[in-house]
Amino acid sequence: MQPNQYRDVRLEKVQKLKDLGVDPWPRKARRTHGIAELAAAYADAEAWTNEKLEGLGLTVSVMGRILAIREMGKSVFAHLAENGEKMQGFFRMNDLSGTDWELLKLLDMGDYISVTGPLMRTKTGELSVRVKEIQFLSKALLPLPEKWHGLQDKEQRYRQRYLDLVSNSDVLKTFQTRSRIVSAVRRFMEGQGYLEVETPMMQPIPGGATARPFITHHNALDMDLYLRIAPELYLKRLIVGGFEKVFEINRSFRNEGISVRHNPEFTMMEMYEAGSDLRDMMALTEKLFETVTRDVMGSQELPWGEAVISYATPFRRLTMKDAIAEYGGIERRLLEDGDSVRALAKAAHIEDVDKKTVGTLLGDLFEHHAEKQLIQPTFITDYPIELSPLTKTLEGDDRFVDRFELFIGGMELANAYSELNDPIDQMGRFQAQMEEREAGNDEAMLLDQDFVTSLEHGLPPTGGEGIGIDRLVMLLTNSASIRDVILFPLMRPMKPIEGSDHAE
């Protein structure tokens, strides 16, 4: 049958329910226990035999969605699912009133019901409820995805995530794990003395990263605003204001492409600590990853595709030039000469070599040769200044800055600085960014005069870092695409079906 035909049949059942005086969508469920609670308490079939369960004299009411129904003579078995756990309902004509037996005939896969009765264990050892009463909670008018194969089409899975969660228990577990990861990160930060704060998502000037922003308009003030690309500049203002340690876990937005590792709306944590520098951020990051993997995943060794990643500390450290030399098979001395760097970039088919600075080309060479090969946790340090307009320079070499990026599984997980707190230097770098914008780089930073003013009031030495939460969840759950760890990823509009009323 087509979906509309299923719907018509089920609407007839809705009317039959109403004729029996049953509300197909009541206001409250009858429930004494959760399915997961009972499954955990009585999982041991040897300790909790059917005789012992009957001896308890325990009557329970549980609710769940019907995922399977099968009839065997005058008995019916139905699997109910709640919060990723399943329990069987065992229905016998002799146990039910005449009305409830009629209700049983109106059940469909996908319906939500509550069943009440004593716990039992079947001959096959399955924990079940011997149903004495049935309560309809929500009559499903549309069917669930095909019984045995579930929801297979990835596009449909992302567009109808609710069906994906119902049909694929592994998907539900991934998002339950995501919640536990975020909670563990938050507990860790609070345990380190950090305070969680909230900063604006709509900003008059987008800053804190080099990226193209989303633009919106405030009608009452008649002004353009930007969805934030990073919370950095506001969090630093808080350090100026006297906060010692702050962090924020929230959404950022970048008007860029969509890929297996990029979604325009994503979750990031940024943290800043007065009196700290890059080395302190490294130690904090190692401790964070070590704690979260242990507390949430129960192991320091986790699968990633065909590899196994070890989160045991300390993590490896490499300068950007050392990583290019090692993974690109390039003599280290060639990376010290500008002409050689340009020649290497041309050999790697990097675009616009003659228009880029040597520092920018080093970043391109690193991305080309090394990034995807950094599977085990590795801190990459000593970035060219062109790539980091908000970072203090290295002592003795102002061409490079005190920055690291943490790479795991061939992708960037974290980005940290010894923050630039010299307002004069900061103004000069903003001006250089503005010149890049005038030259056509629409991802270069805008001048934020208020932020520079805040620095002129005094920002102490500060360590700061951003960690991509979605990518962290990808790694820890062994998920190949960022869409697999974002509940509702951004999708292209569906094309209208030819011949439909909406086809152009």
Structural summary, described in words:
Helix 6 packs across helix 7 (169-191). The chain has two domains: 3-138, OB fold (Dihydrolipoamide Acetyltransferase, E2P), CATH 2.40.50.140; 169-315 and 376-484, Bira Bifunctional Protein, Domain 2 (BirA Bifunctional Protein, domain 2). It is 34% helix and 26% strand. It has helices at residues 3-19, 35-41, 50-56, 98-105, 154-159, 161-167, 169-191, 232-241, 278-297, 320-328, 338-347, 358-369, 423-438, 449-456, 469-477; strands at 59-72, 75-82, 85-92, 112-121, 127-130, 133-138, 195-196, 202-203, 215-218, 223-227, 245-253, 265-274, 301-304, 307-310, 316-319, 378-384, 393-394, 397-408, 411-418, 462-468. A hairpin with a 4-residue loop joins strand 9 (215-218) and strand 10 (223-227). The strands form four sheets. Strands 7, 11, 12, 15, 16, 17, 18, 19 and 20 form a nine-stranded mixed β-sheet that branches. Strands 1-2-3-5-4 form a five-stranded mixed beta barrel. The radius of gyration is 29 Å and the shape is elongated. It starts with a helix and ends in a 27-residue tail after the last helix. The chain contains 15 helices and 20 strands. By secondary structure, the chain is an alpha+beta fold.
